[in-house]
Write a structure and sequence with these properties.
About 25% of the residues lie in helices and about 20% in strands. It contains 13 helices and 18 strands. InterPro entries: DFDF, FDF_dom, Lsm14-like_N, YjeF_N_dom, YjeF_N_dom_sf.
């Protein structure tokens, strides 16, 4: 029997559930023990070169490779994840297990029943002969030559052919776009006699500046058609109030829990249209709980507009200063509104302008002259309807929607379509 099956590769399902493969090298003298060399257990080479399996441990056996006449070869390489296949373990009942345990393999003719020769080759377990692979020398230089690293890197790092262009050495600020893209410009407003400057909105709409004469013509037509000066002051006063509230911190600052940090705003007012707008803004700021201080540059001189606004302001909790000497007692406020001058104003009280230049608070002008408030440089300027050609001393220009009907613009010779969109105040930029 030993000579008949010696050299055969077998796969054995053991009673304990393990799978053993190997080459039959012989049987024990009592024919109860099978001897395997080059054994594998569960697809892994066994630590021993030769193992012995008793017949009672064998549940099923099949021959996976018959003996080769010339050179029997068994692959000793371990089964990996890529070449491992599941081994089917036939289910047996207890009677079959007991039968396998009691089976004697003493006679050769009984072997075909327990060691069924299916002549199958389990490639997943054994694969190609290890001896054949070992005999072949691996040519490292030949295989390395197949990978030309230099050519590969040149291919992946090749720069695209670009059209040569003139290099621009412009330096950009942190808030400027590096790409040379300009917004689309639309002209929705045209005037008969534009001034020098021209402005553009964030949406790319061109807003021309107008002359002082055209502006007075427009405001006179507005007042004649029902939008009185008092109503105009209320509109721009409201816009100025909202700007100041936002510049002071908006909802973060104006929180009922922050009463100890409530801001203080000083409003510098002259005896003119701009001064009346400033007092109106102070009254509306006071309604939000802001501590307001109105300073009159010429206390003895009141225009009708200014007198009407002062009559309402006296009912607020705000403070009124009529003497320049009292300015020295004012520490730096949170914000300063400048409403001192209009186009007809030549000079402003030196004490007030000196104080305005000494404070570290941000300054915002309401409807200032085109050349700026004399001796005062502001950070922001809020202007009504259409802008004049403003100087740099007026800071950043914000345009207020005064609610003027389109037909009134047409009466003044202005072709007008609103540039405001959904907003009541928009920033303007110099259209260079």
């Amino acid at each position: 029997m030993a000579n008949q099956y010696k050299g055969c590769c077998v796969s054995i399902n053991c009673v304990d559930g393990s799978v053993v493969q190997g080459e039959v090298s012989g049987m024990s003298d009592d024919n109860e023990t099978l001897i395997l060399k080059r054994p594998f257990k569960n697809g892994i080479p066994h630590t021993e070169k030769e193992i012995r399996l008793k017949a009672s441990m064998i549940e099923n056996l099949k021959i996976i490779k018959a003996q080769l006449e010339n050179e029997p070869v068994i692959n000793n390489s371990p089964v990996t994840k890529n070449n491992k296949k599941s081994v089917s373990v036939p289910k047996t009942n207890n009677k079959q297990k007991n039968k396998a345990k009691n089976t004697s393999i003493s006679e050769p003719e009984q072997l075909p029943q327990n060691f069924t020769n299916h002549k199958e080759r389990n490639d997943a377990c054994f694969g190609v002969s290890l001896d054949t692979i070992v005999k072949e020398d691996f040519d490292f230089e030949k295989n390395l030559a197949l990978f030309n690293k230099k050519a590969f890197y040149n291919k992946i790092h090749k720069k695209p052919d670009l059209v040569p262009h003139e290099k621009v050495s412009t330096k950009y600020k942190h808030n400027e776009n590096v790409l040379h893209s300009t917004p689309v410009k639309f002209r929705q407003v045209t005037v008969p006699s534009p001034a020098i400057n021209e402005y553009i909105t964030d949406d790319g709409l061109v807003v021309p500046s107008i002359t002082s004469e055209l502006r007075w013509k427009l405001f006179n037509l507005v007042e004649e058609n029902g939008l009185t000066t008092g109503r105009q002051n209320e509109i721009i006063g409201r816009a100025a109030t909202e700007m100041v509230l936002q510049l002071l911190g908006g909802g973060y600052r104006f929180n009922p829990r922050n009463e100890h940090q409530w801001p203080r705003v000083v409003v510098l007012c002259g005896p003119n249209r701009s001064g009346a707008m400033g007092v109106n803004c102070a009254r509306q700021l006071s309604s939000y709980g802001v501590h307001t201080v109105v300073v009159l540059s010429e206390p003895g001189l009141y225009t009708p507009q200014l007198a009407n606004e002062m009559a309402l302001y006296q009912f607020t909790t705000g403070t009124l200063i009529t003497s320049a000497a009292e300015l020295h007692g004012l520490l730096d406020p949170d914000f300063v509104v400048v409403s001192l001058a209009d186009e007809q104003t030549d000079t402003v009280s030196r004490n007030i302008t000196n104080w305005a230049k000494s404070v570290r608070s941000p300054l915002m002008a309401i409807d200032p002259p085109s050349q700026g408030t004399p001796s005062v440089v502001v950070k922001y300027s809020l202007v009504p309807a259409l802008p004049l050609s403003y100087s740099e001393s007026n800071g950043k220009i914000y345009l207020c929607n005064m609610g003027i009907p389109t037909q009134v613009f047409h009466l003044a010779g202005i072709q007008y379509k609103s540039p405001f969109g959904s907003k009541s105040v928009i920033p303007l930029h110099n259209n260079e």
